[in-house]
Amino acid sequence: MNPKTYQDLMPEVAYSSALDYIVFTCVDIAFLYGDRLLLAKRNHYPRKSWWIIGGRMVAGETPIQTAQRKASEEAQLHHLAAERFQYIGVYSTSFAFREQAPMHHGSHSVNLTYQVTLSESETQLLQLTSSEYDSNYQWIRLEQISELADPHSPLDQALLQIAQDLRIS
């Protein structure tokens, strides 16, 4: 069965056990406005720091469907057309902690990452979900991301790589 609603998702205890053995797939979205990237502080593990918008794929979804769902659920940007999502790359991220018990077991994800360039009116509509993100988010110039990042952190290295890949594309 492919889950269609949150009630259809794997029970939490089973998911916690699965995280010890699987690499899960996420879809992340780099929202751009001019020369700026939207960064937000996540409220939950596995990433409780600056990152782009996104999250786990659900069985039965295509990556673009996941990106559209995440844009709608987490940024209130509904009905973004599939062709607006431009593929940037795939990134592997390993986390020391996770939200599910036992937290210290961490997790590992493969992140399919897309960029979407927003209009000024879309930036005004954008509203991040408070359960997922801190209310302080930033539109930051790509060249300034290194000021927020710790170059010794593997996760921040992934964020810096995404920023570099955005400048190239």
Name the average pLDDT: 88
Structurally, the number of domains stands at 1
Number of strands: 7
Portion in helices: 25-40%
Dominant shape: globular
Poorly predicted segments? none
CATH architecture: Alpha-Beta Complex
Q: CATH topology, which one?
A: Nucleoside Triphosphate Pyrophosphohydrolase
Task: Report on the biggest sheet.
Answer: 7 strands, mixed
Through-space gap between termini? 38 Å
Give the topology string: H per helix, E per strand: HEEEEHEEHEHH
User: What Rg, in angstroms, do the CA atoms define?
Assistant: 16 Å
Structure annotation, total helices: 5
How large a portion of the residues is in β-strands, by DSSP E?
25-35%
Estimated structural class: alpha+beta
Write out the CATH superfamily name: Nucleoside Triphosphate Pyrophosphohydrolase
CATH class: Alpha Beta
How would you describe the overall organization of this protein?
- There is one protein chain.
- Strands 1, 2, 3, 4, 5, 6 and 7 form a seven-stranded mixed sheet that branches.
- The model has no long low-confidence stretch (mean pLDDT 88).
- It is built from five helices and seven strands.
- Strand 1 and strand 2 (36-42) form a beta hairpin.
- By secondary structure, it is of the alpha+beta class.
- It has one domain (25-168): Nucleoside Triphosphate Pyrophosphohydrolase (Alpha-Beta Complex).
- It has helices spanning 12-19, 63-75, 120-125, 145-148, 154-168; strands at residues 24-33, 36-42, 50-51, 53-56, 86-95, 107-117, 133-141.
- The protein is globular, with a radius of gyration of 16 Å.
- 27% of the residues lie in helices and 31% in strands.
- The N and C termini lie far apart (38 Å).
